[in-house]
Amino acid sequence: MTPEDLHRLIEEYRDGVISDADARRLADAIRSDARVAQRVRRELAFTGHLGQSLDGSDDEAFVRSFNERLTAERAGEAFRVEFDKRTSLRSTARTRRVGPPQTSLTPFVIAAGFLLAILAAVVWQSKQPVASPTVVKHAPAPPEELPKPEPRPVPPPRPEPPVESPVAPKPLPPPKPDPAPKPEEAKPQPVPSPEPPKPLPPVKPVEPTRVVAVARLDRIEGAVFVGDRPAKVEEEAASGLRVAAGSAHVVLADGTRLTVGSESAIREISRGPKGTRVEVALGTITADIARQPADQPLTFVTPHGEARVVGTVLRLVVDAGSTRLEVKEGKVQLVRDGRTVTVAAGQFAVAAPGQPMTPRSISPDEIVLYPHQAKLTGPEWAQVREPKALSSVGVVLEAQGTSFKVTDFVQTRPSYAAYTFYAPADKEYRIWMRVTSHEKGDPWLRDMVTIEPLRSTMNQKSAFFGAAPTTAWVVTGASTTPGFTWISSHGDEARATVPPISVKFNESGMQTIRLFVGHPNVRVDAIWLSATQKTKPGPKIVPPPEK
């Protein structure tokens, strides 16, 4: 506290206008600093404040007065009443008056506490040994302490009424002696020194955090890349993965296993408070998913929708136009444009623009392939408008010119139309094709088309390829009727006793059928794989929807 602040606080206390907060500050300064206490006593002595409290001519009288005040302070209200009686009957020698007397009791209580602090300091200092070799009983205070206040050289105060009670008030009944010695009550309490800080408990060494990769490569078969470099087994695969050929097996931190097929790409695998996200850009993903928390599902994100999984075995196929979800165990929610469908075990659903997300059987009896679902490679096929087409899209595949012969081995031909679809391995499907020909020339040169189911077994071999190891079959008879008709191995009515061709796929999953041009101007409207249609359908038969 600066000397200026101390002087201001003494002046405000003397004038009776000190605030509660400033009174506490002044009292704390007196207790903690003897020099501050001496200065306060010096300045207040001249105004008579200290003199009023030091009535009596010896130390015993002073101690008795101080003890009375301590007892009164404990009594609370009794101290205030006694203080009011003294101050109302006797006025000090102050020369300043600031404002009208305040009616609040707060300044008096604060002043009493402040006065007691001063008195305690005086008593403590009066009992210290002095520098003189001879000790005189009832000696005055040491030189640095002030004697009893002398009258100030100011105009004489107003005459006091001849009443003895202000100077010597009617003594209160002597208090009953306390069990403890009385002088000990008057001893000033020493200011407690701050306790040394307690030692902090020993800090336990922080164990290094074990970082668990979100996803790592467990096995690699073929050309697999992380970013632009070849992938390595056991390295982290969360930042992206691309399989150019072959497959990659990825294990997530929770034990989920992903098999990434050929020509597939994963942009990112991330783990957050809402679960694990696998962003699939393209290709086929087969997943055996560990049980996930209900509020933290594993989510596959594709360009066409989201598949939210709690725990199941599924297969996800993503191409440029659609996302196909196939569920083998459990249930999966497929979400697109705010619409959600639940796909149960043994079902699949497709998320694509313009297609309904309807769950269907994963092992259907009927599979129908339409021209708008085909992927065209090379220039030998084209999609053209056809008013008699079965599909609502209204297009068919039309054969263009080709430099290859029908008998040429199909594995060397670069141009074809490919259908990709799901089919199980436990069913045998008969293949029916709805075709016609717009060629007007020689019928023997306008009615052939070659179909090739991949990774499958055919019930018979095509005579056009002899003993060549192929599943391709040359279908003939597209020109035997003027319009569209259903044919299988051939369309000649005279050869109706020849059984239709049938196929059984080697493994359940995504299958592929390719079409090669045999003769130009042949149009293909639909390919129907049926486990129930055993005889040639009529020309107006429409395949049942896939269930």
Number of structural units classed as domains: 3
How many beta-strand runs?
Answer: 27
Number of helices: 8
Indicate the overall shape.
Answer: rod-shaped
Q: Summarize the amount of helix as a percent range.
A: 10-25%
Query: Residue ranges: pLDDT <50 for 5 or more in a row?
Result: 53-59, 89-105, 129-149, 161-169
Q: How many strands, which pairing sense, and closed or not: the largest β-sheet?
A: 14 strands, mixed
Let me know the average pLDDT.
Answer: 76
Briefly say what this structure is:
With 547 residues, this protein is α+β, with helices and mostly antiparallel strands. It has helices spanning 3-15, 20-32, 34-45, 49-53, 59-75, 77-89, 106-126, 182-186; strands spanning 215-226, 229-230, 241-252, 257-260, 264-272, 275-288, 298-302, 305-309, 313-318, 323-329, 331-336, 339-344, 347-351, 360-361, 366-369, 375-377, 381-385, 395-399, 416-423, 429-437, 449-453, 456-458, 473-475, 485-487, 502-505, 509-517, 522-530.
Describe the structure.
The protein has helices spanning 3-15, 20-32, 34-45, 49-53, 59-75, 77-89, 106-126, 182-186, and strands at residues 215-226, 229-230, 241-252, 257-260, 264-272, 275-288, 298-302, 305-309, 313-318, 323-329, 331-336, 339-344, 347-351, 360-361, 366-369, 375-377, 381-385, 395-399, 416-423, 429-437, 449-453, 456-458, 473-475, 485-487, 502-505, 509-517, 522-530. With 547 residues, it is of the alpha+beta class. It has 3 domains: 3-186, no CATH class; 215-362, Jelly Rolls; 368-530, Jelly Rolls (Sandwich). Strands 1, 2, 3, 4, 5, 6, 7, 8, 9, 10, 11, 12, 13 and 14 form a 14-stranded mixed β-sheet that branches. α2 packs parallel to α7 (106-126), α5 (59-75) packs across α6 (77-89) and α5 (59-75) packs antiparallel against α7. It starts with a helix and ends in a 17-residue tail after the last strand.
